[in-house]
Amino acid sequence: MTSPPDESPPKTPATSTIAARARGLVGRIASAVTAWVRANPRTALVAAIAITFAIVGWMRLRGEITEAERVRNAAIATDERTRARLAATEAALEGILDRLGIDDPRFPRVAASDPVARNALERTRDLYLARTTPLTDAEPDRLAATHTNLALAEVELRLGLDREAADHAATAAAGLPPGPDHARALLTGAIAQRRLGEAKEATVLGDQAITHAERWLATNPDDADALAVVARVWVERGDTAEHGANVPAAADAYRRALDAVAIGSATDPMQLACAGQAAMRLGALAAWQGRLEDARGHYDSAHVQLRTLASAVPHRRGPRRALVRVAIARARLALEGTDPTDGMRALVEAVAEARTHEAEWPDREATAIRAEALLALGEALADVDPKRADAALAEATTTLDALVARAPDVARFATNRAHAVIARAAFRLDRGDDATVIARQLRDGLRTLERLADDARTVADEERIAVAYHQLGRAQVALDDAEAASAALKLAIGRLDTLARQLPHVRRLRSRLADARLSRGDAFVALDRITPAIGAYDAAITELGRIATDSERPADRRALAAALARLGTIHARAGDLGRARSAIAGAFDAQRAVVDALPESNADRDMLADYGRRLAGTALALRDHRGVAEAMERLDESMPEMRLTQAGFFAAACGVAREDSAIGVGDRTRLANQYGSRAVGLLRKAFALGDIDLARLKALRRVLSPIENRDDFRQLITEMLAREAQRGERG
């Protein structure tokens, strides 16, 4: 039972503390126990059997090492049977210690934690089963083997070995007497069946688990294990409903889990874990539906429950891992708010927390969480810091590549790797990298997702596949293969439309559906099919308009503005300047709301200025001087950097007004003078603030030609000449 020195991970403060506490306890009782065992060898054997059951119960991560240590001291090798039980106990204990991350020099850890736990449990079970025939008291051995099968099934769930977990859970359920462990076996089987796509069987097993646990609670109302099983079953039922796109049923199940926990102890580790899981799931559902405040409340509750649990059992990795995942979820939620800066900062902190956790407990799950945090950070940074975004996405992809190579049978790792590949390819596509390479990467990710989702396709699988087809379509547009692009985008739209109908309150799905329709519009434009392109843009804008109406997020209004601007461009290309102006005016209004919400965002102000220029330019092309002036007045004093642009458009409006035969001569003169005066006023203000000099004014001579004969304009030139002369004298 000794592993090579180079395979043993370094001790951590938490695990060393637990080991020291256990050694101290064993040291105090070792002498008394040894003497008692030597005097009572038969009693010691019975004690070894009973305490072995306690070890299997401890596999539920109850958090104490004392019972396992007592087995090692109590089962003194007095005869062959006791030696066999001692070997079985040590094999199980090695797996347990390794799984929990407890570093004890008498039970060395090895690198691959979960496989070691599984192998140790298999050896334990086989040792018991091998002795059921020759022994006269075979029933305790069979029961011990059954308990070990349950522990084995739970470890196999962690390893992604769902079929094996289902089989071992069924064997355990058939052999266990009524009680919490029987309900646990049914629950483990339900989880495995759900992962295998057997939703009906999973529901039946879940119902049986609740029935058995509640029947036990009728006579044992304070049994924490049974209460925890009930809560865990409801969490599982919620997961099953969520995977089936039944969001109301999922939310109801998670609330029932919280209700079950509320009946029990507020300090029981298993119940705290269930409460944290249920609150996390409710937070994710609320975020999906756009109920951000509700999501924050649920995530905050999950954080409190898991923080309490982590403090109660500091040697356990599970609560710490869940806390990192809550941190990632809360950061993503903050990115959805009105100020994404807090979300970005929280994501950076979540990545740092994930790295710390991995350093303390270096196993596959910790590595997977780090990759998850990096992936979220890379996606969030894509538009604001491309260099850091690329580094985060590259590290996430490389990390998941290594995980898949180490554990090719764990579907979750392969799915996350495909997600990372697709996310990085989309980022590189936006950056203008080689579309041929990007398309190949997207196809690779798609093949993985399609293969993994064949047996049990969930809502999340469908969404990932739809996103991959969308990005592949965009890559095909970049490769000038518009036909292939249109086909890929049609597949993306079909999947997203189905999901959006199933989950009408999930904003992200509606937003992705709108984005896919915009991309298909781009593909139609590339094929010079203007009418279907306009139809695709209109459908996308309708959806984005609904989202923006329901949301307070600046990002949603920004997306609507960008889509309207694209529609304006295609209408202008088709020669319909009236519709082009209407679309661009809508873009301006939507972007104005963004600037009002984020007045310090220079990028958003620049976008508003661009829409203002385009709106005025379209009105000028229509020879609508009032439209030109109105577009520029809407910028007004809120955009001082636009003064020269405004002056140029007012000067152009002055020239158009003089030639407007649809109005009388007096109105022409009055309006032309009004526009000209506005242009000169803006130039004078720019001159006073030092934003323009004579050289720059001369560069604008053609634009300002409609007002060059005005007296106030000539006076401004005179003043500018005088100032330059004074500067020359001082120089």
Short description:
The protein has helices at residues 13-39, 41-58, 66-74, 80-100, 113-130, 138-159, 162-175, 180-195, 199-219, 224-243, 247-263, 269-288, 292-312, 317-335, 340-360, 364-381, 386-406, 411-431, 435-453, 459-478, 482-502, 507-526, 530-550, 554-573, 577-597, 602-621, 625-633, 643-658, 665-688, 694-699, 711-730. It is mainly alpha-helical.
Structural account:
With 731 residues, the protein is an all-alpha fold. Helix 14 packs antiparallel against helix 15. The N and C termini lie far apart (89 Å).
Give structural attributes.
731 residues, mainly alpha, 31 helices, 79% helix, elongated
Distance between the termini: 89 Å
Mean pLDDT: 77
Protein structure class: mainly alpha
Globally, the shape reads: elongated
Total number of helices: 31
Q: What kind of sheet is the major sheet?
A: none
Q: Roughly how much helix do the residues carry, as a percent range?
A: over 70%
Low-confidence blocks of residues: 1-83, 94-113, 132-136
Overall number of strands: 0
Oligomer: single chain
Work out the radius of gyration: 34 Å
Q: Strand content of the residues, in percent?
A: under 5%
